[in-house]
Amino acid sequence: MKWDQLELDPRIRAAVRRAELRRVGDVLCVSALDLQRSTGLSHSDVQHLLATAAGACRRHPPVPAVLCGGQRELRLTVGCPVLDGLLRGGLPVGGVTELSGESGAGKTQLALQLCLCVQYPTQHGGLDAGAVYICTEDPFPVRRLQQLIREQSCLRSDVPPSLISSLQFSDHVYIEHTADLDSLQVCLSRRVPLLLARGLVRLVVVDSVAALFRSEFQADDWLERNKRLLTFSSILHHLSQEFTTTVLCINQVTDVFSRSDSSGPLSSNMSPALGLAWSNQVMVRLMMRRLQRTVVRGDQSSALRRLEVVFAPHLARDGRDAAVWREGVGGVCSSDTET
């Protein structure tokens, strides 16, 4: 996006150009103090510039790929009609989707479920291909994946049993482990494109995006961290657009503390990690929360979760209650009981 497309004072536009900040997204990689130094703008001008740039990036994210002939946009089902209803059919194909939440919220559970959903034909909400799952911190949960495979007929009652039994799910989930940012870049730049080019995968999962950036950079290294972060997001966007692929990044959260008034106690609220520079690189931001309640279905019980849309160009801000069952992540029904 060009600066001329934004509603900015000509004086601010000229200062930005003198500082050689050519792209709108460039200002989001620089602190407000450094922007003041490089542009010579006042504090209020810089704050207005940052707010305008952030709003523009959110209003104009990468556009999801559409099927030829003007047909409906491609979506990857999450395997549950309740959650698909929230997402208008599932995750978009093309662009980067972020799923954030605290530990134990169910993020990895949903990602594993998507690794199986993507293998179904398009008439059943899949993309008729496999998934590549990139682990950056924890070992890949092989046992849980095998359990989900065994329970597919229960989760996907909308699919003929003969089709489920014919799919070799475990053969089409490609697992990668990356211990540092350099190996992650090699994986995304060399190995993953080979799988995509051969049509073997149509889903790329990075679990988690924050782990390596948090471990390799200190607070003073924010500029270098943001440069690497933008390089990483650029690779993901390229893969999603060139190969018409769903990209899912699992993200950690940080606590943000605030006071309701000057004398009240501090309250904590979760915010996705990696800050504004990263948030403006994702097209869809989802969050999973673990609630302090339990839900029961038959002989199973689960902590209640909630999947929320934080922002997306095609979705309203809304949420649905969900739970993690043996067969996978599913929306909570009226027949389920809370305790």
TrEMBL record:
Please give the CDD domains that the UniProt record associates with this protein. XRCC3
Record's keyword terms, sorted: ATP-binding, DNA damage, DNA recombination, DNA repair, DNA-binding, Nucleotide-binding, Nucleus
| Superkingdom of source | Eukaryota
Entry keyword annotation includes Cell membrane = no
A molecular-function term among this protein's GO annotations = ATP binding
* Keyword Zinc-finger (UniProt): no
Family annotation (Gene3D superfamilies): P-loop containing nucleotide triphosphate hydrolases
Give any Gene Ontology cellular component.
Rad51C-XRCC3 complex
Domain named RecA family profile is located at 72-253
- InterPro entries, per database record: AAA+_ATPase, DNA_recomb/repair_RecA-like, HHH_XRCC3_RAD51B, P-loop_NTPase, Rad51_C, RecA_ATP-bd, XRCC3-like_C
Q: Major location, coarse class?
A: nucleus
Q: Where in the cell is it found?
A: Nucleus
GO term, biological process aspect, one: t-circle formation
Alphabetized PROSITE patterns for the sequence: RECA_2 (PS50162)
Q: Sorted alphabetically, which PANTHER family does this protein's record hold?
A: DNA REPAIR PROTEIN XRCC3
Protein family: Belongs to the RecA family. RAD51 subfamily.
Q: What is the protein's given name? A: RecA family profile 1 domain-containing protein
Record the organism.
Answer: Pleuronectes platessa (European plaice)
